Amino acid sequence: MSTTAKGFTQDLPPKEGYSRIQTERIPLRTVLGGRKVLGISLFCTVIGHYVYYTQWKRIKRESVEMRSAQFAILPFLIAERDRGLLKQVKRNYADEKELMKDYPGWKVGTYFGEPIYKTIPEDAFVEPDSFEYFAHTEPDEMDWKSVLRQIY
Fold first, then answer.
1. With 90 as the cut, is the pLDDT of residue 124 above it?
2. Please, what's the b/e burial string for 29-48 (b: 16 or more CB within 10 A of its CB; e: otherwise)?
3. What is the model's pTM?
4. C-alpha–C-alpha distance, residues 70 and 80, integer Å
5. What's the pLDDT at 152?
6. Which residues is 110 bridged to in the sheet?
7. Taking 60 as the threshold, does the pLDDT of residue 73 lie above it?
């Protein structure tokens, strides 16, 4: 028992005693004051509005330019579409002529010699519907979505 008692030391309070328990409020250290924070936020708001306004003007200017370009190129696109339509109608006319060459009395563009449209002049162009337009194409090549969209 004497060996264990020698290595043991009692844990006692410090000689001058424990320090006081702190109960009063400790104020936080402020990095920026209220006026500085308000000034910084106001500065950021003004700069943000300026940047937003300049970008808005740029986007508006580019959209006007793109709209002008679209308006400028639209007649050419419509003309190309019409040109393609007329080329396909001409091909259909030639294919019908080739297909019905052995049929006696068949006149291309009529139904057994009778004009299809009786109320319009002979030289007027009637835009064909999708079935007439794709009459001599392979069924796999036909755009069925556009055909069905015209019907329904």
1. no
2. eeeeeeeeeeeeeeeeeeee
3. 0.55
4. 15
5. 53
6. 115
7. yes
User: DSSP assignment, residue 139?
Assistant: G
Task: Tell me the C-alpha distance between 122 and 114, whole Å.
Answer: 12
The neighbouring-strand residues paired with 145 are: none
| Contacts for 106 with CB less than 8 Å, ≥ 6 apart | 100, 112
Cα–Cα dist 100/113, whole Å: 13
CB contact at 8 A, 127 and 81:
no
Q: What does the chain come to in residues?
A: 152
pLDDT of residue 110: 82
- Cα end-to-end span (Å), the chain: 107
User: How confident is the model over 145-150, as a mean pLDDT?
Assistant: 63
Nearest of 81, 101, 106, 97 to residue 136 by alpha carbon:
97
